[in-house]
Amino acid sequence: MQLSEELKTLIDASLADGKISSKERQVLTSRAESDGLNKDEFELYLDSLAHSTKKDAKGMVDKSMPFFKWLVAKKRRVAIAAFILLGILQVIFEMISGVAQNSENAQKLEERGCANLEDCITKYKFEEARNYYDEKYNFNEDKLRKIVSSEVSYYVSQGALEMALRSVNEYDFFHGFEPQGRSDENTYYNEEVNWYNTMIEKTLVDFEEDKVNLKKLIYSIKPLAKIGKIFKKSEKNEYQDKYTYDKDNSKKEELLKRYRL
Fold first, then answer.
1. What is the dihedral of CA 167, 172, 177, 182, to 10 degrees?
2. CB 115 within 8 A of CB 109
3. Starting from the edge strand earliest in sequence, which strands make up the sheet with 224-232, in order?
4. Which sign does the torsion angle of CA 191, 194, 198, 200 carry?
5. Residue 147 contacts residue 133 (beta carbons within 8 Å)
6. Using CA atoms, how far apart are residues 164 and 148, in angstroms rounded to an integer?
7. In terms of DSSP H, where are the helices of the chain?
8. Whole-number Å distance between alpha carbons of 256 and 258
9. DSSP annotation of 222
10. For the segment 152-187, what is each residue's pLDDT rounded down to a tens digit?
11. How many CA atoms lie within 13 A of 124 on its CB side?
12. pTM for this one?
């Protein structure tokens, strides 16, 4: 079938999207008839062209599929390998960190001569115990009380009364006196005061011959918080009632009188 150049151009343009629409077929058939071509033969020719184009497109996809499958599989393999590598690196990092931590702990043990806070207290290495406290137990009042109590007992037993007095005076309270609040407002403060005052009382007998430091110790005694009158009644429940608090210095007055100071 002899086609004109113009008709070939129209056919190529229609097949650009891989198929010929019904409208495009009408236009092409009309042009073919005007060129003197048989209508039925031309339509069969168009059908063969459309089928050939569709087959070529399918062949191109089929040829591309192995490549895309390989690409996806490769990405999966790369992802798995990367995941495994990250796991290995994490294990190595943890091993290195563990070795470094053990090395640091060994160095501290060698420098301080004690393995932890309790071990330092047992060996009377109080400065080292405070270092461990700062590193691991900061703001843990029970740990600090244990250090201070052990210091005072040890220095008193060794006759180092000035050192014992310094340990007492350097103790920082965690809880302060509150002049007003609920009925339990000063519970923790009173608990800490009772511990502190008891520690001082235990050392007083060793300072009986040293009136100056004995007096300093007694004046270190802290007042307890004594609940006073209610100043604000709660409408909901008694627990929310507000009270005033007074400072109870009876313990200090009792000790000054006992030692005639």
1. -120
2. yes
3. 180-181, 242-248, 224-232
4. positive
5. yes
6. 9
7. 5-14, 22-34, 39-112, 117-122, 126-136, 141-157, 161-169, 187-204, 211-219, 250-258
8. 5
9. P
10. 999 999 989 889 999 999 899 999 999 999 999 999
11. 7
12. 0.58
